[in-house]
Amino acid sequence: MFSRSSKGTTAANGAGAPAKKPAAPSIVSLDMRMVGDLNSQGEVQVDGAIEGDIRAKSLLVGETADIRGEILADTVVVHGRITGQIKARSVHLAKKAHVVGDILHEDLSIETGAYLEGHCKRLPAKKEAEPGVDLLVKEPGKAPSLAAPAVKPSLETKKLATTG
Q1: Long-range contacts (CB closer than 8 Å, 24 or more residues apart) made by 57-64
Q2: 3-class secondary structure, 6
Q3: What pLDDT, in 10s, does the model give residues 54-90?
Q4: Structural domains in the chain (count)
């Protein structure tokens, strides 16, 4: 079962390198107010106030949170207040959510009681995207960001001429 040649190596991952543990979520607590942009490659939980843009893999906005800025993430769950645009693959607005701003998403769920003032625009799913076009735009030294889609005005205002 065990041999001398396997001592000192880890057979679990096959490569001999230790498995990478996921990092603990970054937390902006209730008594914290932050001014500036927040970038993370992992999960972020906000219970305090942030004035600035947030870029993260996953964002959890607590009931006491107040965010003013653009949010860019794979997954966003909102229980608190957001003023600004949300760009995410998956967005969930809980019943106490208060969002003022547009939401660009692939998947969107809104519980009864959530407040949303803004437009919702569904982005094409990654499988449906054109070949060679990816929603994530990577810039050197920056966290990945979703490419803003070209938005055409859906309603045009026309002035009607009256005769009389």
Answers
A1: 58/25, 59/88, 60/25, 61/97, 62/30, 63/96, 64/30
A2: helix
A3: 999 999 999 999 999 999 999 999 999 999 999 999 9
A4: 1
Q: 119 in a domain, yes or no?
A: yes
Q: Taking the model in full, what pTM does it have?
A: 0.66
Identify whether 29 is part of a domain.
Answer: yes
Say if 99 falls within a structural domain: yes
Q: What percent of the chain has pLDDT over 90?
A: 60
Residue with tokens 């949303």: 116
Contact 143, 131 (CB under 8 A): no
Task: Please answer whether residues 67 and 79 qualify as being in contact, where contact means their C-beta atoms are separated by less than 8 angstroms.
Answer: no
- Residue 49, domain extent: 23-143
